[in-house]
């Protein structure tokens, strides 16, 4: 036991030394201090005096998805403003997602926001909610099924239309041969984006599947693709975290290809500004969450409906170097 | 008692051929040559120097972790938490530096301590509870996955870390963990050097030190090893801390190479490390294997995953090709080993 106690003492001493060093070894650039310095206090008080309704949001997000995190942030901020009790749950398995919607119905919530990535699996439960008198708004995926299932409105980006915008933009930039990098094999939305881009792109476009949970392998796969085919002059990634990796791969492969991406984050903003990235397509996830909650509130309060039975599109918005500088502040705080 | 036979083999005078046939990595080497020849024939760009550097990079990121995982398997255990531990290590250094506005190196050191503590926890729980390593490390795997997400969300408000690229100490830390050199058309990544160094150190430990004998003895039969005075507990905890140390190195590479870490990454990579070790000749039952073998296994993995891209095959079938190639390489490896053992 004596040895164990010495071990504890050694670990304690090392920890103390490190903490001491962390106080002494402060970084004068970047970090949390810089963020706090830049950020003014944001108040989250309700702006209305309507009753405290409960709205549930159930999405098909996987664990740790950056995109859905922003959607959730938008929904939360709208809920705070509208005096809403906001409940969020998510699961990438359709069956579990349907179960969560059922739970919301059981709790007799005052409104449900749901994403229809796998519409068939959620059809029954969405119709059940509507039958029980709970207003439903669909977000992000499922624009085609939304009205048929009885939802008030669909808020989101049509993946095919977003892809088409990218294809047109690539053509405008004089690109000849593009690679569409899919980081999740079997994701319908990803396939639609690439297919949409292929449709309007004047050049040739190929798909490349990569292992999204393993960044070094993403880099190696893109690098390999560029080495195998030096005529590739554009790489399109479908998520913001993969764009800087594609830039690295392009540099390592000695390629001149332009890297473009879907979605924004602060690395993408930085790379857009520096010119390392050509453009980014934003579908404004914050707006999807915010509008869904706000429209449910409007419906409850004033029986308002938006869109007239057609999807309300939140994208695509093409962001280039000029807009990136303007948006950077919002990207940094995590709402773009 | 493979420890005793290993010692005997080294003492007995044997011909070079016979000694080669007795090496665990022989099958893997034959498999690697087969995969290499195959892709050289079907993919025109595979043999280019720049392509080889891509393959080496890809192999090294798996290989750095395959080394301690192979040692652990020789010691008779495995670690399902190895994949997410890499992400944990990257998250800890990034978030500690950012939140404390500390020099990046401070975060790197804190991360080393935290990661080693996780490795110690795995080994300690295993030896204390006597539960199978499958259960213990599955528990750690799930806990770390949750902690990665929960802590990142709690601390940074989003599911990925903030960029620390503008902070002090970043350039020097990047030089150590993520630098690269251009040598003509070839880009050499520092991970390849880390990988080679780790293989060399592990091989030295396994074949030339007392600790190496302990590892083989513990994997061959823990009770028998304990009876002859091998410190079984210490050896096992040491092996788990070895995995943690390498997870730290890989984690720092990911952080300094990509500046931002996503909390959901790393899940599933533990299988790649185990696959590399198994292709490299480690037995699932312990007591047999080598560090060099794990390196050859990682190299096969690098060649296969990138070779498919060089060959420009229809990407819809990517995962199928990958699985089939790995299975074939492992089967070939098993077959060669059987022939080698039969000829002894």
Properties at a glance:
heterodimer; A: 336 residues; alpha/beta; six-stranded parallel sheet; six-stranded mixed sheet; 12 strands; 17% strand; globular; B: 344 residues; mainly alpha; two-stranded antiparallel ribbon; disordered N terminus; SBP_2_dom (chain A); Bact_Solute-Bind_Prot2 (chain A)
Write down the oligomeric state. heterodimer
Q: Quickly give the structural class of chain A.
A: alpha/beta
Judging from the principal axes of the Cα atoms, what is the shape of chain B?
A: globular
Overall shape of chain A: globular
Rg of chain B, Å, rounded:
20 Å
* Count of alpha/pi helices of chain A: 12
Strand content of chain A: 15-25%
Largest interface: A-B, 56 and 72 residues
Number of strands of chain B: 2
**Annotation field: number of helices of chain B:** 15
- In terms of per-residue confidence, which ranges of chain B show pLDDT below 50 for 5 or more consecutive residues? 1-5
Helix content of chain B: over 70%
Query: Radius of gyration of chain A in whole Å, from Cα?
Result: 23 Å
Helix content of chain A: 40-55%
Could you explain the architecture of this structure?
The complex is a heterodimer of chains A (336) and B (344). With 336 residues, chain A is an alpha/beta fold. Chain A is 49% helix and 17% strand. Chain A is built from 12 helices and 12 strands. In chain A, strands 2-1-3-4-5-11 form a 6-stranded parallel sheet, sandwiched between helices. In chain A, strands 7-6-8-9-10-12 form a 6-stranded mixed sheet, with helices on both faces. In chain A, helix 4 packs parallel to helix 5, helix 6 packs parallel to helix 7 and helix 10 runs antiparallel to helix 12. The termini of chain A are far apart. Helices cover 74% and strands 2% of the residues of chain B. Chain B is built from 15 helices and 2 strands. In chain B, a hairpin with a 2-residue loop joins strand 1 and strand 2. The two termini of chain B are 18 Å apart. Classes of the chains: A alpha/beta (336), B mainly alpha (344). The interface between A and B is large, with 56 and 72 residues. Chain A: Belongs to the bacterial solute-binding protein 2 family. Chain A: Pfam families: Peripla_BP_4.
């Amino acid at each position: 036991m004596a040895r164990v106690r010495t071990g504890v003492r050694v670990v304690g001493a090392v920890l103390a030394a490190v903490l001491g060093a962390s106080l002494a070894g402060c970084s004068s650039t970047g970090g949390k201090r810089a963020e706090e310095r830049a950020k003014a206090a944001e108040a989250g008080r309700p702006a209305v005096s309507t009753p405290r309704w409960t709205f549930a949001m159930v999405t098909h997000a996987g664990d740790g998805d950056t995109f859905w995190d922003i959607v959730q942030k938008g929904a939360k901020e709208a809920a705070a403003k509208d005096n809403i009790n906001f409940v969020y749950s998510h699961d990438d398995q359709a069956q579990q997602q349907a179960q969560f919607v059922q739970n919301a119905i059981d709790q007799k919530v005052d409104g449900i926001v749901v994403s229809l990535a796998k519409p068939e699996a959620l059809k029954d439960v969405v119709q059940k909610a509507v039958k029980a008198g709970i207003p439903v708004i669909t977000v992000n995926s499922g624009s085609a099924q939304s009205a048929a299932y009885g939802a008030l409105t669909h808020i989101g980006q049509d993946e095919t239309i977003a892809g088409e915008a990218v294809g047109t933009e690539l053509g405008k930039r004089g690109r000849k041969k593009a690679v569409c990098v899919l980081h999740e094999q079997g994701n319908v939305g990803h396939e639609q984006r690439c297919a949409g881009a292929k449709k309007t792109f004047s050049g040739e476009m190929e798909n490349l599947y990569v292992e999204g949970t393993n960044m070094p392998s993403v880099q190696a796969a893109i690098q390999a693709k560029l080495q195998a085919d030096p005529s590739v002059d554009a790489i399109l990634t479908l998520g913001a975290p993969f764009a800087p990796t594609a830039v690295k791969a392009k540099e390592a492969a000695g390629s001149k290809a332009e890297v473009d991406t879907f979605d924004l984050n602060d690395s993408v903003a930085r790379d857009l500004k520096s010119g390392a990235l050509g453009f980014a397509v934003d579908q404004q996830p914050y707006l999807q969450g915010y509008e869904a909650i706000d429209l449910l509130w409007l419906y409850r309060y004033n029986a308002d409906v938006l869109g007239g039975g057609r999807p309300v599109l939140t994208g695509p918005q093409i962001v280039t170097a000029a807009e990136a500088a303007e948006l950077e502040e919002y990207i940094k705080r995590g709402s773009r | 008692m493979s420890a005793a036979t290993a010692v005997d083999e080294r003492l007995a005078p044997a011909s070079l051929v016979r000694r080669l046939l007795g090496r665990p990595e022989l099958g893997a080497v034959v498999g690697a040559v087969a995969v290499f020849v195959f892709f050289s024939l079907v993919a025109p760009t595979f043999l280019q120097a720049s392509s080889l550097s891509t393959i080496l990079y890809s192999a090294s990121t798996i290989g750095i972790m395959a080394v301690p995982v192979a040692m652990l398997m020789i010691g008779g255990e495995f670690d399902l938490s190895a994949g997410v531990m890499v992400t944990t290590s990257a998250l800890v250094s990034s978030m500690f530096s950012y939140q404390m506005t500390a020099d990046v190196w401070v975060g790197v050191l804190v991360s080393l301590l935290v990661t080693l503590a996780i490795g110690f926890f795995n080994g300690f729980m295993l030896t204390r509870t006597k539960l199978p390593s499958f259960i213990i490390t599955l528990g750690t795997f799930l806990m770390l996955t949750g902690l990665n997400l929960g802590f990142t969300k709690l601390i940074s408000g989003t599911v990925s870390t903030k960029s620390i690229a503008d902070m002090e100490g970043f350039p020097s830390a990047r030089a150590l963990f993520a630098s690269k050199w251009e040598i003509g058309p070839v880009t050499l990544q520092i991970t390849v050097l880390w990988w080679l160094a780790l293989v060399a150190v592990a091989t030295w430990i396994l074949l030339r030190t007392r600790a190496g004998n302990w590892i083989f003895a513990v994997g061959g039969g823990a009770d028998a090893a304990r009876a002859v005075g091998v410190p079984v507990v210490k050896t096992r905890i040491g092996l788990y801390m070895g995995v943690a140390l390498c997870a730290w190195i890989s984690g720092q590479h990911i952080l300094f190479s990509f500046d931002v870490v996503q909390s959901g990454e790393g899940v599933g990579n533990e299988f790649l490390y185990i696959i590399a070790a198994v292709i490299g000749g480690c037995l699932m039952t312990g007591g047999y294997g080598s560090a060099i073998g794990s390196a050859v296994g990682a190299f096969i993995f690098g060649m296969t995953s990138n070779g498919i891209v060089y060959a420009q095959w229809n990407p819809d079938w990517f995962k199928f090709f990958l699985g089939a190639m790995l299975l074939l390489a492992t089967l070939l490896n098993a077959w060669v080993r059987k022939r080698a053992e039969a000829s002894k």
